[in-house]
UniProtKB/TrEMBL annotation:
Origin species: Sphingopyxis indica
GO molecular function: manganese ion binding; metalloaminopeptidase activity
Residue ranges the record marks as coiled coil: none
PANTHER family documented for this protein: LEUCINE AMINOPEPTIDASE-RELATED, PEPTIDASE B
Annotated ranges, domain Cytosol aminopeptidase: 310-317
UniProt GO cellular component terms: cytoplasm
Designated name of the protein: Leucyl aminopeptidase
Keyword terms: Aminopeptidase, Hydrolase, Manganese, Protease
Length: 467
């Protein structure tokens, strides 16, 4: 397992290979200042200042080579501009020539992520270390890299090894490491107190029994913030069973839980001055004689009754109970993460989490946080005009819209019914998966919206050092 603190070191003038950054505007001027030998090497490599392109520049001897790479803007480095170099360069120490890496530190570390828990042969490769004179940036960037890796690890782990009990174990590790309180509700207490979580998970095997997992941390007089995550460890679709192709990636349906556990650990590890309440609604949507059925009417913790129109719309059910619990403690802010709808992916593709919020300032802060961290999110309309699509003849609301239209919006409107009207709330409908690799972002589990939410929390609550 990678220790991300080994990948970034304070620059104390130690020996390191130079990394030259160029962009399309500056390349020609930079090239004229290089030696004839270097220009010949670049010509032989057919180097062009294209995105993520890099080349080795020969030095005076075999060990004194350096690197040139193309970035979008040398004056405004993105989080991902050094990610490919972090992946492909030989082990050793490196230093950017003439500037500091800034938030590119994150991509450098992220590019070295590996998920090899199930490989019988590990890739023997040492770390690529980047030096920076901005010592104060190291710990925050390492913390974000670790949080991102945690999301990836949890989502990448097969469902057989990442059921509700495994999510509880991870929550227990986090709580113990940071002196937090852990509470787990399951069995009869779950059935009585959180009936929708129980109904969704009751068909699963006993060792994958459903539960509500809660972590509480921080001083009681600090602002109370709730983080709520969908932890469907595997989603067969229930009796409305998914086709094989739709089931293939359903180990990732606990991606919302992975996001809030990682975000909670960021909060605790950095000592953010809030009263944190992290809730994970963990269940497996399985098939057995005890599975909940289309047409059933479920009671919820809030008291609302829900008619089941589709057992494959189970994530909103478990979140409904968890959101109701979060609201009972009167937080000033609730943020939830869920791999909730395919409709969000149809609208926005795999890279952009759909963001819903009942407060414009909160939405703006989340969008700004995503821009700052190069973790973009896209606000979608929480439009009450579609609320009638959740109406049903025999219950307070249905769990599946009566139309194929606006699927992500109606799912968000369902969740809104379980959030107190006077509480600021944001909902991320995130994919938690990357179908194709990009530099620093491997195929597989992905943290999408995590750092946007973290930036928002820091901007709102961390007043330390602001005078």
């Amino acid at each position: 397992m990678i220790d991300y603190s080994d990948l970034i070191q304070p620059d104390k003038g130690q020996d390191a290979r130079a990394i030259h950054l160029v962009d399309k505007k500056s390349y020609d001027a930079w090239l004229t200042g290089r030696s004839a030998r270097e220009r010949a090497a670049l010509a032989a490599a057919a180097y062009k200042p294209d995105a993520y392109a890099h080349a080795i520049l020969p030095g005076d001897d075999a060990e004194s080579w350096s690197v040139v790479t193309t970035v979008a803007d040398v004056e405004n480095l993105s989080a991902w501009c050094l990610a490919k170099l972090g992946q492909v360069l030989p082990e050793g120490r490196y230093r950017i020539e003439g500037r500091q890496p800034g938030k590119a530190l994150f991509g450098w570390m992220s590019g070295q992520y590996r998920f090899d828990s199930y490989r019988t042969r590990e890739e023997a490769r040492g770390p690529r270390v980047l030096l920076t004179a901005d010592v104060g940036a190291i710990a925050p960037m390492v913390a974000e890299a670790r949080a991102t890796a945690l999301v990836r690890d949890l989502v990448n782990t097969p469902a057989a090894d990442m059921g509700p009990a495994a999510l509880e174990k991870e929550a227990a590790r986090i709580a113990k490491a940071h002196g937090a309180t852990l509470a787990v509700t399951k069995g009869e207490a779950l059935e009585q107190g959180y009936p929708m979580i129980h109904a969704v998970g009751r068909a699963a095997a006993k060792h994958h029994a459903p539960r509500l997992i809660e972590i509480v941390w921080g001083k009681e007089d600090h602002p109370r913030v709730a983080l709520v995550g969908k932890g469907i460890a595997f989603d067969s679709g229930g009796l409305d069973i998914k086709p094989a192709a739709g089931m293939r990636l359903m180990k990732k349906d606990m991606g919302g839980a992975a996001h809030v556990l990682a975000l909670a650990e960021l909060v605790m590890a950095t000592g953010l001055p809030i009263r944190l309440h992290c809730l994970v609604a963990a269940a497996e949507n399985a098939i057995s004689s005890d599975a909940f059925r289309p047409g059933d009417v479920l009671k919820s913790r809030k008291g609302l009754t829900v008619e089941i129109g589709n057992t494959d719309a189970e994530g909103r059910l478990v979140l409904g109970d968890a959101l109701a619990k979060a609201g009972e403690d009167k937080p000033e802010l609730i943020v939830d993460f869920a791999t909730l709808t395919g409709a969000a992916r149809v609208a926005l593709g795999p890279d952009l989490p759909a963001l819903y919020a009942n407060d414009d300032a909160l939405a703006a802060d989340l969008i700004a946080g995503g821009t700052d961290r190069d973790d973009p999110v896209w606000r979608m309309p929480l439009w009450d005009g579609y609320a009638d699509l959740l109406e049903t003849d025999i219950a307070d609301l249905g769990n599946a819209g009566s139309s194929a239209f606006a699927g992500s919006i109606t799912a968000a409107l369902f969740l809104k019914r379980f959030v107190p009207d006077d509480t600021r709330w944001a909902h991320f409908d995130t994919f938690a998966w990357r179908p194709t690799a990009k530099p620093g972002r491997p195929k597989g589990g992905a943290a999408l919206g995590l750092r946007a939410a973290w930036a928002m929390l820091q901007a709102r609550y961390d007043r330390r050092g602001r005078g």
